[in-house]
Task: inverse folding
């Protein structure tokens, strides 16, 4: 990355100087919506690390709308509860050598739909511990402590009691899972609700783009939250971006997994960009060129986003480099529901977050730039019909 910054620096000197001189005179980013997909209200994962379920639930609700079914708000915690049970069994099976935690992937929700169906939010809040919001710190500590004790195997033989005991903890915190309920006057079970809303888990695929695996094949993506070791289709970056654009233009939304740790990801401003200059990564000689500008002022000016900033041009190699050196990590899942452009014509993805509507400018949404998405996308989930036809043929998804 440092070499990249050095390479860009000379070319950017004039543009950044101009930016500093007029930053306060600009009005910042202005967005025009190009394409927007109808979706459900913004969710709030509150004090939990379960973004994967909130993002995937939003994605599924949007799929239900796309298919012409009545709008419904699904329970994210139903997927979380049952996924914890699956994680625990794998953790014990691997004798503690598999990831166990609050995180997960979009496919985890689909696994639960296939085995346990799905339920409405008003039938299962998942709060059974005298709180008004989701709070999972104690729950996570209890579950981790329990499983660590199990895999230490103090009896020198694993008992048959650990799994029902673990499930009783889940019931205590989340509540009992509903077996039957009514939606708009009709009786359902979790399985018949999924069937009635035409959610077929076989219709959804996950894609990624990394060169340490061959393209156009299914690969096991090496990220901690892929605790189930599921397979993703690996395709070139430009084709991954083409899938996203094609999907949204055809009315399909996207469940997005990626890195939100960059300073250019500013939820309160509803913005995610990749500025070309990262002051903290400049060499001493580079910093010397800005000797008459205090460092804190330069830093705050660049990241104030009072003006559209030049962005890094992301290549396949650069994307791979940041994945390999851990500067791109698997942080957060969100939901892409549209395309926008700024006043200079740059393209962005309208992104529905699960942090409530606290960023008052965009009411829980943000605009992720194309370059940010190129660099920081770990994987996506889409309906397989959202793929361009030629790519679907390459992947063996159509005949």
Result:
């Amino acid at each position: 990355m440092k070499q990249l910054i050095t390479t860009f620096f000379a070319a950017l000197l004039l543009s950044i100087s101009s930016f500093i001189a007029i930053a306060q005179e600009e009005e910042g980013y202005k967005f025009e919506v190009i394409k927007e997909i109808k979706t459900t209200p913004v969710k709030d994962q509150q004090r939990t690390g379960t973004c994967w379920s909130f993002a995937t639930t939003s994605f599924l609700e949007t799929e239900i709308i796309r298919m012409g079914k009545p709008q419904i708000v699904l329970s994210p915690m139903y997927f979380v509860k049952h996924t914890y049970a699956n994680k625990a069994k794998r953790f014990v099976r691997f004798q503690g050598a598999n990831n166990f935690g609050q995180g997960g992937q979009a496919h985890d929700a689909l696994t639960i739909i296939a085995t346990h169906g799905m339920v409405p939010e008003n039938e299962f809040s998942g709060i059974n511990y005298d709180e008004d919001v989701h709070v999972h710190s104690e729950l996570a500590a209890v579950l981790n402590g329990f499983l660590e004790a199990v895999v230490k195997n103090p009896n020198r033989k694993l008992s048959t009691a650990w799994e029902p005991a673990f499930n009783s903890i889940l019931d205590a915190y989340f509540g009992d899972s509903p077996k039957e309920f009514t939606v708009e006057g009709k009786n359902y079970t979790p399985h018949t609700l999924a069937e009635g809303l035409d959610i077929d888990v076989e219709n959804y695929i996950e894609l990624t783009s990394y060169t340490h695996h061959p393209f156009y094949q299914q690969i096991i993506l090496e990220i901690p939250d892929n605790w189930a070791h599921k397979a993703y289709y690996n395709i070139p970056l430009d084709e991954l971006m083409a899938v996203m654009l094609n999907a949204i233009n055809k009315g399909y939304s996207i469940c997005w997994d990626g890195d939100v740790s960059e300073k250019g990801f500013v939820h309160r401003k509803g913005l995610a960009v990749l500025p070309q200059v990262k002051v903290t990564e400049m060499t001493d000689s580079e910093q010397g060129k800005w000797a008459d500008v205090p460092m804190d002022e330069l830093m705050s000016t660049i990241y104030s986003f009072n003006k559209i900033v030049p962005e890094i041009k992301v290549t396949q190699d650069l994307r791979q480099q940041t994945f390999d050196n851990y500067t791109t990590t698997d942080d957060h899942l969100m939901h892409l529901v549209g395309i926008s452009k700024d006043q200079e014509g740059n393209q962005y993805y309208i992104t529905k977050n699960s942090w409530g509507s606290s960023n008052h400018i965009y009411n829980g949404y943000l605009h992720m730039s194309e370059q940010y998405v190129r660099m920081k996308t770990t994987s996506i989930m889409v309906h397989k019909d959202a793929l361009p036809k030629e790519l679907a043929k390459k992947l063996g998804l159509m005949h």
Summary: Residues 37-276+311-394 form a domain with the Cathepsin B; Chain A fold (CATH 3.90.70.10).
